TrEMBL record, chain A:
Transmembrane segments: 6-27
MF-aspect GO terms: sodium:proton antiporter activity
NCBIfam families tied to this protein: CPA3_mnhG_phaG (TIGR01300), PRK12674.1-2 (NF009314)
Matches recorded under Pfam families: PhaG_MnhG_YufB
Protein family (similarity comment): Belongs to the CPA3 antiporters (TC 2.A.63) subunit G family.
Protein name per UniProt: Monovalent cation/H(+) antiporter subunit G
Protein's UniProt keywords contain Transcription regulation: no
Superkingdom field: Bacteria
Cytoplasm found in the keyword field: no
UniProt keyword terms in alphabetical order: Membrane, Transmembrane, Transmembrane helix
Automatic annotation (TrEMBL), chain B:
Similarity-based family: Belongs to the CPA3 antiporters (TC 2.A.63) subunit F family.
Membrane-traversing stretches: 6-24, 36-56, 62-85
Record flagged with keyword Kinase: no
Native organism: Agromyces archimandritae
Any single Pfam family the record assigns to this protein: MrpF_PhaF
Protein name as it appears in the record: Sodium:proton antiporter
Any one cellular-component term (Gene Ontology): plasma membrane
Higher taxonomy: Bacteria, Bacillati, Actinomycetota, Actinomycetes, Micrococcales
Keywords per UniProt: Cell membrane, Membrane, Transmembrane, Transmembrane helix, Transport
Coiled-coil ranges from the UniProt annotation: none
InterPro entries in the cross-refs: MrpF/PhaF-like
Record localization: Cell membrane
Amino acid sequence: MSGSELAIGILVLVSAFLSMAAGIGIVRFPDVLTRLHAGTKPQVLGLATVLLAISIADPHWGVITTAILVLTFQLLTQPMTAHMLGRSAYRTEHLRRDLLIEDVLARDIDTRGIGT
Amino acid sequence: MTFLNWISVAAGIMFGIGALCAVWRIIKGPSILDRALATDVLLAIGMCVLGAEMAINRHTDTLVILLVLAIFAFVGSISIARFMAKQDAS
């Protein structure tokens, strides 16, 4: 067992643990917004650790630049998905208002009249 | 068994639990937004599995698939979220 094998194993295990946590989170949490919180974090950090493991396993410039490109596109697109899902969930009332501590958005929507 | 064999078994079990939970949420999910989110999570787990297999077996054959998925995977969820009508309860 060499040092690079140890690093690859630990990084892959971190990614697998984050995937398991995302799965358990989206089963256990009560509504769309909280499931969004559980589901969107491993999509970035789990993929980042796996790409780092690939870069350690095969350290060439082509592999490293492609890994950086994959991570860049994931970081660009996943927040858009999370934002659109959360916006649509709020506007179609797929949230449990008894779980909210404070609804800051409701006041702005009412005063500006941007529909629900 | 070598060290990476044990790692792949443990990672496979954890990836499997995550993927099964996502499939359960796709089947069960009360609204279509839950299903879109669970599909996204399932896709992310699939990307992580592809990458982990590449890292453990030390090849880079499917790195291009990872790139294409990272570019285009968000279109489905965004279109579901964008064009979901208010009266659509399911």
